[in-house]
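Continuing the batch. This is chain 6 of the set; chains 1 through 5 are on the previous pages. Same settings as before, nothing changed between runs. Recording input and output for traceability.
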Amino acid sequence: MLHGKVKNRFLIYMLFGMGSVLGLSGIDLLLPSIPLLPDILGGDPTLSQLVIASFVAGTAFGMILFGNIASKIDISFLLFCSLISYAVLFFILSLQT
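Output for chain 6:
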């Protein structure tokens, strides 16, 4: 029984780790649009580079926040709530024009 619990915990840790790596790889998706951002959103190239800084800062804040939350509640419950909130929020964002 203990072996199955350890195996599940390892899979959850791997899922969190892979999610962190994939989240940070979002910068690669963002980089090609940086030169176009001043034209699309207005402003200058210096301000458009703040998009990358805010993305990295948001990722770091999220890791710290969810690390603290995970130490207080069950990790599988946190994973479930995170995935559900991610799906709901991105569904709502997909409805925006």
